[in-house]
Structures are given as C-alpha cells and as structure tokens.
Amino acid sequence: MTVTVDQILFLITALVTMGAAATVVTAQNLVHAALALIATFFGVAILFVLLQAGFLATVQVVLYIGAISILIIFAIMLTRRVMQDSGPQTNQQWWLAAVFALALFAALWVVLQQVPALQQASGSLPIPGDSLQLLGFGFVDPNQYLLPFELASVLLLIALVGSIVIAGEKQ
Amino acid sequence: MDIGQFIKDPLGVIGAFLTSLLAGIGLAPQAIMVIEMIIGVVVIASAALVLPLFLIWFERRVVARMQDRIGPNRVGPQGLLQTIADAIKLMIKEDITPIGADKLVYNAAPILSVVAIISMWAVLPFASNIIGTSLNVGALYIVGVGSLGTLAIMMGGWASNNKYALLGAFRTVAQLVSYEAPMILSLLVPVILARTMDLNGIVQAQSVWFIVAAPIAALIFFVTSVAEVGRTPFDLLEAESEIVAGFHIEYSGMKFGMFFVAEFLHAFTVGALTAVLFLGGWRGPFAEQVPLLGIVYFILKAFLGYFIVILMRTTLPRIRIDHMLDLNWKFLVPTSLSVIVVTIVVDKLIQQAGITNDWARSGLLFLANVLLGLAIFWVLSRAARSMRAFEGAAGEAHHGGDHAAGHLAPAHGEPAEAHAAPAH
Amino acid sequence: MVPLSWYLTLAAALFCVGLYGVLARKNAVAILMGIELMLNAVNINLVAFWHYLEPQVMAGQMFTIIVLTVAASEAAVGLALIISIYRRRNTVIAEDVDLMKW
After folding, report:
1. Could you tell me if residue A63 is inside a domain?
2. Which of A42, A64, A83 is a domain's end point?
3. Residue A55 to residue B140, Cβ atoms within 8 A
4. Which residue from B241, B242, B239, B221 is spatially nearest to B231, judged by alpha carbons?
5. pLDDT tens for residues A118-153?
6. C25 touches chain A (CB under 8 A)
7. A-contacting residues of B 127-166, CB under 8 Å?
8. Which chains reach chain C with 3 or more Cβ–Cβ distances below 8 angstroms?
C-alpha cells in the first residue's frame, strides 16, 4: 500500500497532537501542561483543515488558543502559592485511572474494527463550495438550527455573568 | 516570456516558468506544487522580515522631525543603514538568560511573537492576483494569529522568572485580550458590507472605499489595532518610567531584537489591514490591468496608516491602565455593537429599497454613521455633565475652608453657587 | 486517502488521554485541561463524520460549533469556581476540598 501525502500529513499531525496530549496529563509543571494544551489545540485545528472544515479550524484557533488557553494560564498563575510546582501531580489512584483509560481505548478500538464501512469510507464525497454560506444560513433559519444558536448565546451570557459574580472580589 | 502576459499576471508567469523548470529536472507534480508553495512562503516571509529595516529608519526620521531634530543621518546615505548597524549591535551583544528561567519557553516566546505577525502576511492582498493564499475566512484568520502574539507575550513574561516581568505580562494580556473584542466587532462591518470574509473579496467590493460607508468602524478598528500592537498611547506594556520595560526586561540581544521587529512589523501590518479593509487595498487607477501598480497603491496606503500610527506615538501621552480598560469596555464595545446594528439595519433597508448605485449606498451609510456619531456625542455629553455635577456637589462639600485653591469651576450650571459660597 | 477509522481512532485515543487526566491529576486546573481534551476529541469525531458521510448537510459543523461554545462557557465558569475556591481555602488540590465528605 503506497502512503499518500494525505496520510503522511495526517500521521505527523496525529503524532504531534497525541504527544502534546500526553504531555498535558503527565507534566510536572502546570504551565508546561498549559503550553502543551495549546499545541494540542493547534494539532486539532490542523486536523480540521485536513477535513476541509476551514472555518472550524479558524474558530478553534480564535476561541481555544486565543481565549480559553489564556484563561487557563491566568487561572494557573493566580492559584499557585509558590513559583515552583513540587511533589507528584497525580493522586493515589493514578494506576487505576490508567487501566480504565486503556480499557476504554481498547474497547473503542475493537468496536471500530467491527464496522467495515469505516475502513472503506474514503471521503471522496463532494463538499459544497459555499459551505460557509450554508453554515451561516443554517444558524439563522428557523427551520434549521436557530434555536440551538440562540440558546448557546443565552448560555454564554449566563456564563459571563456567573463567572463575574463567582470570581469577583467581595467588597 | 511575454511582457504583456507578465504585466497582467506576474505570479502566473513566474509560476509557470518555475513549474517547467522543475518538471524539466524530472520531479513529480505533487512535489513541484509543494516546492512552489515553500518558495512562495519563503518570499513572503523574507519580504516581511526585511521591511522593518526600512520601517525603523522611517519611524526614527519622522519622530525626529516632529521633535525638531534630524534623526539618524550619519550611517549610510540619509542614515538608511542605521538599522543594520543596530541589528549588528544587537546580534553581538551578550546573550543573558536569567537563573531559574524556563529555557524552552523563554527562547520560544520571541520566535512565536515574530511568527504570529508574519503569518498575518499570508492573507494580505497585494494586487488582484498577488496574494499569499485567498482564504475564504481571511478576516477571522487575522484575529486568530493576532491572539498568538498575545500568547507569546504571556510566555515571555512568565518564563523570565521575574516579578516585574510577570506583572507586566499580566497587564499586557489584560489589555490585549480586552481590546480584541471591539476589534473583532469593528472588523465585522466591512465583512457585512462586502458579504465575504475573504480579504481579496473585501477589496474587490470596494468600488467606493469602505471608510465612506463606515467611518466609525474604521476609527474603532484603527484605535483598537494600535492598542493591540502596544503603541503609545497604549504602551503601558513597555513603559520605561513605570514598570521598567514590562515583559521584556530579561531579554537582551537578538531576542529583544525579535520582539522589537515584531512590534514594528505589527504596526505596519495595522496600517496594511486598515488599507485593505477600509481604504480600498490595492484599488486605484489602472490597478486591475497592471497588478504591479496595485502593489504600489497598497504599499502607499499602508504607509499612510503607519504614518498616522507614528503621529499618534509622538504626540499623545500614555493613558493609565484603568482609564484604558474603562475606555474599552464602557465606550468602544457599546459603540462598535451599535455600529454593527445600524449598519445591518440601514444596509437591509437599502437592499429593500432596491438602490444599487454604490455611491448612493455608501452615502446613505455615511449619513447613518454621522447620525449615530451625533447620538453618541449626545450620550457622552449627558454622561459628562452628570459626572461633573456629581463631582461638583462632592467638591462643594469639601471646600468650605480653602476657597482660592478650590475654584475649579466644576460644572457650567454651578459657577454662580461656587462663587457665591466664598462671598459670605 | 485517509480512512475514517484513523480519525475515529485518534479521537478515541485523545478522549482516553483526557479521561486519564481527569481521573489521575490532583490539581483542579489540570482536571479541567483533561476535560478540554475530551471535548476536542468529540469535536474531531463530529467533523470526521461530517466530512466522510454527509458533507452536504451542515449539521455536523453546526453541532461542533455548539459544542465549542458550551466548552468555552464551561471553562469560564469552572475556572471562576476554582479561583473562588482558592481564595477561600487557599488550595486548588481537588482532594483537599472535602469539607462535605462523610
């Protein structure tokens, strides 16, 4: 089986993403974990580009890397008592968590192998040229997904007000 | 090579020539495409990196003339090689890394800062067919890579293992993240008017420049972009008198040079973005037929924007962090939201009325913007008057004893009382 | 061409790594980072299915955008809670916040 350029690109991106994700959950220093999280988000954005969802990739970069990552880094820096992290960062049941995670991955992998259609799907279906417009229309069309869109906006407003109330300084 | 074809489509001719050259060597077509892409990336990145040499000289001369002195004029003709001398000086400086600094993050921060700015150049349209890549989400891409620069500053401030660097980085990130909100909102207005997020599409929709149809949005975008760069009056990030150079205290030599280059290049990119979004980009007489003229117009407009940024730097004082955040959240965000709403409503009304003449459309939008500006001024004056009345009432309760010093004439409606109080 | 199963395997692996992060880490912010990894894995799954099975229907991408929005608001509220807890109890270790344990 010849390895095409697509497959090489996918494998490199997958390796980078998984390496960064492993660093996130095992890093001793929390800021290193946060930076590895940013690398993971970037890898996921590249995967979106490979899946020809360019708008989603850009939104991923803007939201996850530009906003949520900075929020996480701020939270890390505001909640540390000393500049260095000391001691083990995992609790006592970490081996049980590892077993469970591996078991879940094995189960999912076995299930994926059982469905032959997944191996053969080759992604040669045509993507509509004006997918961005269709996406926009889908969000404002009452017959499509207007209600979830509005609910998501209300949710964001609630989260905004709630975070300010919870984390604000009590005078 | 046909000169006529070259003038109409320079990149196409060069691309075809390179393809034939590489195919002659005997490479597969996919490899040729990858090599051509890499060459394109290298060309754009090199142009973006060589430009600051000229930009720094330009800025120093302009600032000097405004301050009634001459500026660098010894090294090379008219001082053009001064920046090269500065770069050599930075390169041969001792490279100090503070103890306890996180080596990987410390070294990666200036690199990420420069990478974020150069990535913005991939989507700028230099001419109708000279563009790095014509992304259909170009405007959002600009916002995304701009936030990478914010991240780089955070990394630099934290990795320096220095209280003041960290504090400076916190304030910087607070400012940059706050000012992204009105920047994105005002970026939406040309997107709405042009019906596409593609920067090339936005330029092509500007038969009438968008600064006529959306002057308030242009102003907000320009001001917030200058705040994103960290230029005066928003240069709290590196205020030497206040926080001793902020997040890049511990950076010396070429690492500081990279932050420096990133800042100047970002300032120029702000001018370029304003030119693309509001001043018509590469549009001008004969720009469609001769794309090279399009590049000239684009660079001229970008330098106009850069010149205004330098003007702001030499004439305006720095503003305080709490005033800065107040300005953002209490003025710029509501204003930009109202500009979007007004633009959408007026545009839809124009569409319903069936007016298709571009000048009429832009004129009506300009009128709507003027009315909105008047409404904003009215609201501001009401707010200022009530604030002055509040301060005046509080001030009167204080200056019962000291009359001479307390006469600040707080509000227009109260001088009679203020003058009557000491008279008894 | 890249088969769909590769993307799904990658998403499953990312999900399991995130799950390990949630179950095994002490610091509350690290647990939140694990949750973000899991949400990203779900996003990859959704977009992969959209691309390979029904690219004409934009519902796949819309679902992903809604998930992204919910993840952002959840991260904001979660971090606000963590900061608030840190102010009261001066710790962010999840095991030490056990006032209501039996």
Report:
1. yes
2. A83
3. yes
4. B239
5. 666 666 677 777 788 888 888 888 888 899 999 999
6. yes
7. 135-137, 140-141, 143-148, 150-151, 154-155, 158, 161, 166
8. A
- With a cut of 90, say whether residue A112 has pLDDT above it: no
Least confident segment among B163-167, B225-229, B398-402, B413-417: B413-417
Q: Which domain holds residue C48?
A: 4-91
The phi, psi pair for B62, rounded to 5°, reads -65, -45
**Measured between CB atoms, does A94 come within 8 Å of chain B?**
no
Residue B182 in tokens: 């009105």
What is the mean predicted confidence (pLDDT) over B26-46? Answer: 83
Q: DSSP string covering C14-29, please?
A: HHHHHHHHHHHB-BHH
Residue C18 lies in a domain: yes
Give the mean pLDDT of B309-330. Answer: 87
Q: What is the mean pLDDT of residues A18-40?
A: 91
Question: What is the C-alpha R_g of chain C?
Answer: 17
- Amino acid sitting at position C42: V
Can chain A be said to touch chain C, i.e. do they have 3 or more Cβ pairs within 8 angstroms?
Answer: yes
DSSP B367-405: HHHHHHHHHHHHHHHHHHHHHHHHHHHHHHHHTTS-TTT
Across the A/C interface, how many CB contacts are shorter than 8 Å?
A: 251
Containing domain of residue A160, as a range?
133-171
User: Measured between CB atoms, does A73 come within 8 Å of chain B?
Assistant: yes
ipTM score: 0.91
- pLDDT computed for residue B409 by the predictor: 41
pLDDT of B284 > 80? The answer is yes
Task: Give contacts of C42 with chain A, Cβ < 8 Å.
Answer: none
Q: Hey, is B130 helix, strand or coil?
A: strand
Q: Does A117 reside within a domain?
A: no
Q: Report the C-alpha gap between B203 and B134 in whole angstroms.
A: 12
Q: Count the domains in chain A.
A: 2
